[in-house]
Amino acid sequence: MTETLPTFRVHFHDGTSMDIEAGNSLIAEARARKERPGSFVKKIKLVREVRS
């Protein structure tokens, strides 16, 4: 049985957001900061339904 990682939606102060699969919200934030250096994270939410 394989378990999938939860998806987190990371929102930035400029109004953009990105979905990241990670073990927890801190890991999701770290990955988002790597992809968007210099951007400020506003909030992180657990996604219950993935965008299609």
TrEMBL record:
It comes from the Bacteria. This is Uncharacterized protein. It comes from Rhizobium subbaraonis. The lineage of its organism: Bacteria, Pseudomonadati, Pseudomonadota, Alphaproteobacteria, Hyphomicrobiales.
